[in-house]
Batch of 2 targets.
Target 1
Amino acid sequence: MKYLLIYIITIIFVSCTHTLVDEDPNSLVVGTYNIQWLGDGIEDNVIRKSKDYMNIAYQIESSDVEIFGLQEIENENAIKNLIEFLPSWNYKFIDNGTKQNLCFIYKSYIKISKIELVENLEVEKNKTRKASIISFSYANEEINIINVHLKSTSRYDDTPEKLQRSFELRNAQAIALNNISKMFNDKKRNLIVLGDFNDNPNRNSKSQISILEENLYFPTKELKSCKAFYFDCIDHIAINDMLKDNLEPNSQLIIDSKVLFKEEELKLISDHCPVIIKLNFNK
């Protein structure tokens, strides 16, 4: 109860001291956030208490983001544990058949018309994840957002063969995603692709996702990781040709969680940081 009261007072303070972006009905702030192994409280990979969910909620609420694509959500009960502390937010969860699912959370004034799985990003079963896509109307525009969590390259890829296979799988996912993006461009439909890409287009020949720049623009690719300034950011928000003119200049940023929380708190929040951009439909 003590923590809940402190959280409510803090959110009221934040709400009173921020210039809320949702006061402008023609601007949209979009974010992506990998919340490391957000669990349902039963045999979780990361053991969290109510205070930790409150810390995550505080970071989301104080970001001024209006719609977030989330990654690494165990199940619907996991997102309910978080949304309990976000009373002005709704969510759309869709199970992709793994323990690391995707979810959208958004301010309650946004009305999602549909959510679907993007099946063809599961290029190999049990090795890669499906994506998800939502559609909604905003500022008299149809907005489509694809949420992805592409194949990682990790310490478990401990042989040259495993390492090469992870590259091949991520590249295959990028090709599938590029084909989808081309279709949206050809039909002149607005598209945002966001999520954990586990890669950066700037890596040139070493990048498995650089092909996506054929049909998408990555305003976040110059950002550096919040872990260390010499690491590339791997969480991105990309937009297609129809939305490039709507991008608010220099609005792309990464919210450094180290500024907001102590080291021991960070371990129970996430090993990623939120990445955001702002789109302006007044243009």
Note: Residues 136 and 269 are 29 Å apart (CA to CA).
Target 2
Amino acid sequence: MVYVLGDSQFFYNDLDDCDQVHIDDVSSDDTGQDLSNYDFKSDGFRVTSPSHLTAHGRLTQETHIPPAVRGGVDWMRKLAFRYRRIKELYNEYRNNVEPLIGDERVTSDWMNLRENIEDVTDGWLSLARKCLQLINQRFV
């Protein structure tokens, strides 16, 4: 469930092998373009390679842009767009992840997962949240 959320909302597969240390490392490559209608899935950041086609013409996997293009101005701009979108999502949903997850069934599954983690770890998630709240209160 975490992997699906990471890939569907936070570009996990796109960014898995990128070597950016911090989300703001590529902010200078961001043109500030409005991303509300930007199509991340077909912007060419990830391309498919013909060598990955099965005999039936189906893709077996996706690959990143070839190394010669990777790191170019256009690729870095697209990378910066992804990181900006991650930052926007984080800021919007950091206090309430349920709307990000979406439909009621998935939210229910998420809540069940959290309850199972609580049971298996003797409540470490709740304890960690309390600790973070106390720390946050001290700095506010």
Note: Residues 73-93 form the longest helix (21 residues).
